[in-house]
Write a structure and sequence with these properties.
By secondary structure, this protein is an alpha/beta fold. It has helices spanning about 20-30, 35-45, 65-70, 80-90, 110-115, 125-135, 175-180, 200-215, 245-260, 275, 310-315, 415, and strands at about 15, 20, 30-35, 50-55, 75-80, 100-105, 120-125, 140-145, 170, 185-190, 225, 265-270, 280-290, 295-300, 320, 335-340, 350-355, 355-360, 360-365, 370-375, 395-400, 405-410. The structure holds ligand LLP.
């Protein structure tokens, strides 16, 4: 496929996948997550060269989204018991590696569930090999390798190198193979996910490292996984990765291994963000527009309890505005505005840089009652939402075949205190 060009982000938007922003907000309330399922389908299609597309469901795990992924031939990884249950609830089978448990530890419940369903495991620590081996001698496993270096859009999303807790350190393969032998465990897969926001220069080093480690493990290997990390542009200075080149590098690695082992090697990719980020929009309502010294603050009914990426990583999300009656606002004057939320915390700002520095954004002048749309919010958006300040979590809606469909109800006050107990 040709490399996708970075989209133009407009600061005025009155529809999402043909549905009126104002109508969606009126019907389902705000804050509201909206996913355009067509975008997910397109992104899946972009990756058709890979043998297996394994969705990192941590990016957006609503079971309706997982179901639609499944119907399009995408399998999943699960990083916790909860994610295994989600995948099963979405119709994934425990058979045939449809669900792979990928983590650096087993908690007791996860180990039980993995053993009960006989799930394939991608081990991120030598201890996992022994713990699984004791419970399921003769298992086949994948090893997640930390090649000694990594890459990320933020230090917090870099998953390789000495500072990362993820994966098995590249010089400990021998120890792992000894542990595996002890329990008759066979290493059939290798996996490297070195961080979110991969670029091509980095990738050839990752491929070399994969080949080196595969050579050490030997011919029991039948699958290699390129991990996730495919970037999506969050602003106009960012680009997509050249997927053809990306595939070619991995394909060449796979072919060399296949030739040297004398059997076919399956090539997996494990994206989260790439499949869901651009499908998702967070619609919020403007509740106050106020001057604070030289700054103009536009305060929304959504905060970092709904979308945590800006406060956590200084992440940039495109922002657009729609009038309360559903009209585009491209005729309004552009002003510099700081966009924030309702939480009792100064960091509750969507327009901030890493380090917590408040920035402003050039936006159409906002009025109370307008809608503000935080875009590219479909990955690590709702899934990182919290009940901080006792806020209920937003509803989620999917747009499919020109129809809006509720896929998660807005939380209620009863949900908020469920499980809490006042002892006598
Ligand atoms: N595979 C493994 C083993 C991972 O740990 C991850 C992400 C992925 C795949 C998917 O990575 P992606 O394709 O989505 O970049 N909350 C952060 C991202 C954390 C990523 C954690 N692991 C953010 O909002 O940017």
């Amino acid at each position: 496929m040709a490399t996708l060009s970075t989209p133009k982000f407009s600061t005025s938007r009155n529809e999402i996948a043909g549905q009126s922003v104002a109508a969606l907000a009126k019907e389902y309330g705000t804050p509201l997550y909206v996913y355009d399922i067509n975008v997910v389908s397109q992104r899946i299609a972009d990756l058709s060269q890979f043998d297996v597309v394994r969705y990192a469901q941590k990016a957006c795990g609503n079971i309706a989204i997982l179901d639609r992924m499944r119907r399009r031939g995408v399998v999943v990884d699960a990083v916790s018991c909860g994610e295994i249950h989600r995948a099963l609830a979405a119709g994934y089978s425990a058979e045939g590696h449809e669900i792979v448990y990928t983590a650096d530890i087993f908690d007791a419940a996860a180990l039980d569930l993995v053993v009960e369903h006989n799930l394939h495991v991608n081990c991120g620590s030598p201890d996992m090999i022994s713990q699984l081996g004791q419970r399921r001698p003769g298992a086949e496993v994948t090893l997640r390798i930390n090649p000694g270096f990594g890459h990320g859009h933020s230090q917090k999303t870099n998953t390789g190198g000495e500072q990362s807790k993820h994966g098995i350190w590249h010089s400990q393969i021998d120890d792992c193979l000894r542990r595996a032998d002890q329990f008759g465990v066979t290493v059939t897969g290798l996996h490297m996910h070195i961080g979110s926001g991969t670029d091509l220069e980095h990738l050839s080093e990752v491929c070399e490292a994969m080949e080196r480690v595969a050579g050490e493990v030997g011919r029991t290997i039948t699958t290699i996984s390129a991990g996730g990390g495919l970037p999506v542009p969050y602003n106009e200075s960012e680009t997509y990765v050249d997927l053809d080149k990306y595939f070619q590098l991995w394909d060449a690695t796979r072919n060399r291994l296949s030739e040297s082992f004398g059997h076919p090697i399956t090539l997996e990719i494990e994206p989260g963000r790439y499949l869901s980020a651009e499908s998702g929009f967070l619609i919020a309502e403007v509740r106050s527009v106020k001057k604070v010294g030289g700054n103009l603050f536009v305060l929304l009914d959504a905060g970092f309890n709904d979308l945590a990426r800006p406060v956590m990583y200084g992440a940039h999300h495109p922002i657009s505005v729609c009038s309360s009656d559903g009209h585009a606002v491209d005729d309004r004057e552009l002003v510099q505005a700081v966009v924030g939320g309702p939480l009792c915390e100064s960091g509750d700002i969507f327009t901030q840089r890493e380090g917590g520095y408040v920035d402003s954004r050039s936006l159409p002048a906002c009025r109370v009652g307008d809608y503000v749309i935080l875009e590219n919010a479909g990955a690590y958006g709702f899934v990182m939402a919290s009940n901080y300040n006792s806020k209920t979590r937003a509803a989620e809606v999917m747009i499919e075949d020109g129809q809006a469909k509720l896929i998660r109800k807005r939380e209620t006050f009863a949900d908020l205190i469920r499980g809490e107990v006042i002892p006598d």
